[in-house]
Amino acid sequence: MAESNLSAPGSANNQSQIDLPIEILIYIMEYLPLSDRIIASQVCRAWYEASQDQKLHKEEIVVLQENITRQLGCLLNSTTSFQNFYFRDVELDSKLIPFWEKYCPKMRYLYLESCVVTERMFVEILSSCCHLENLMINDCHELMMTGRVLELELDVLKLRKALVNLKGLSITHNRYMSDAIFYRFVSTAPNLHELDLTGCQISYHMGLYKKFYPPHVVDESNLVLSETVFTFNVILKFIREQAQKIKVLKLGQTLVDNSALSQLGSVHGLNLKAIYLESCNQLTNIGLTNLVSVQKSLTCLDLSGCSRLTDHALIAICHNLVNLTSLSIQSCRAVTDIGVAELARLEKLKCINLAQCEMVTGQGVTSGLCQKINRQMQNLHLGALQMDEESVCKIATNLPCLRHLDLSWCFSAVTDRSMQVICEYLLSLNTLELASCNKISDAGITGMTANETISDSALEASSAFEEYPDPLHKINLRSRAEKEIVNDAKRKQAVLHKITYNDESQGMCLVRIQGLQKIDLSGCNRVTDVGLLYAFNFPALQYLDLSRCQQITAIGLAALSENNPSLETLVMNSCFNITDTGILSVVKGLKRLKHLDIQGCRQLTDASLIAIGQHCQCLLYLNVNSCIEMTVGTVLEMEKKLETLRTLYYVGLKTESSIGENFGCSPAPPPPPRKKHSAR
Fold this sequence. Notes:
By secondary structure, the chain is of the alpha/beta class. The chain is built from 27 helices and 20 strands. One of its GO terms (biological process) is SCF-dependent proteasomal ubiquitin-dependent protein catabolic process.
């Protein structure tokens, strides 16, 4: 989700120094991400005009939340044809009428989350959206609570004419949804392809349906829908009516059961392309097997968190859904290597999520995905699996076209050696997630000492000899934690020595993967300044998480800021060695920084806040929780200077009273100890 820049270039007198036709400029900008287009639009008038072309803004979403007075002014004065809008925690009243008049006729996507809007205003807004393709209404209780929304048949007919292009309808997490309200909504969309009811309180029990619709009273041709209950039977009735058009169905986080899936699969003429059933804990193998044996045209299936599914269900999927391109069984804890090995049958699979499947090991993953070179697979999520080093190496060599790889919490699998194989073969990656893979060190990401593994025992021995040249004093009295700290320092020195005195790297450096846009190294405490100095030079890198990398200092941050100018999100939770000097380098070097998380960095002072206020003109999010040397007053002063700042966290900082206690009079002495009375 991207937030667009609504301002024109600073100087209207700038003239293009390169006389390229505007069509060529537009064509070039189609290949640029939003951040780069914003910067390019500020070069000259010609580039600005090219950046305003409508085709460049089809995928952008303008986010408006809480107090939107300033943003509305910018939008009303803007010449850009924005088409997608996301309103969050906003009151949609008469003040927005000029906005609706300008943008509704061309609007394609409208998202309303936790918004306050009346029934009449809602109808007026939608009646003007003649090109609307997707409508999302999430958690808008005031709109649904009265049960009167769209109760007039004239309103339904009016919207039915206006919303002929509506393909996707999402009514999620609305606890006041009823059969009557649901049918009014779907009646306004004659060409609906996608229906999302995630998190709604749907009743699947036939007994409850019979309570509100007694068999001797119900007349299917003239059914009066209930305004107090939301039943699956009414959803099924709509799907039967629109079976030829409905292609995507989302029923996640509901109580959908085996009977409901069996009825759904048996609908005549229904050929679903995607179904999302995440966190549907009532589902078992029987219901899913019945569904996939009939709906064989499915290409996308999400079963995340369906804890009662086992290998039997996964085998049925692999045998029936040969066209499947995306599958998620995250947190399906009963699935084992037996089921995962059957994934080899899905030759068109591009995205697979096996994260947190506790019974799955590296052997099952390699059996299912790495029997041969697979150039189809693009996204692979294996977080928290029982993987080993050899499995990661096989994945890297057999899936060369991966673009997203998640190996977070695979403690023993991601080592310096397996990291070297990733750097050698996975050159198409744009996202690499290695959270808490604490065996990675600078050697793995720089390629230095790749052929010479430095063991902990060797490091301890060298440390002992250096400190105690006398052989009578070789006994090491350090604790295990102290030994690890010393060994990390030794590794850092060894890698730095190799880099300094060797002209050629012995291995593969992470910088080979030039397309990386997101890297998560949180908890990789063996990555130090050396890694940032010699392995981080990515022109497209936008997101970096270095949380709990406690050996990083201002030296590494200076190099990071200089060599990665596109960074927009930087997370450095609990990096205890970061100082004000490091933050100054970050805010000066990263001009596009939008999200900065430095909570728990205890050496940072108000000097960092002052630097942030002076240099971070694009900042949207800042978290300085538990930065104990900062003061609340300075945070509030900084907030006034940052007009773009939307989210600010500053819990656990110094207040004026605490400063007075520290620098004023000495605190009162503790009370005297209680006297012990001897027992008589």
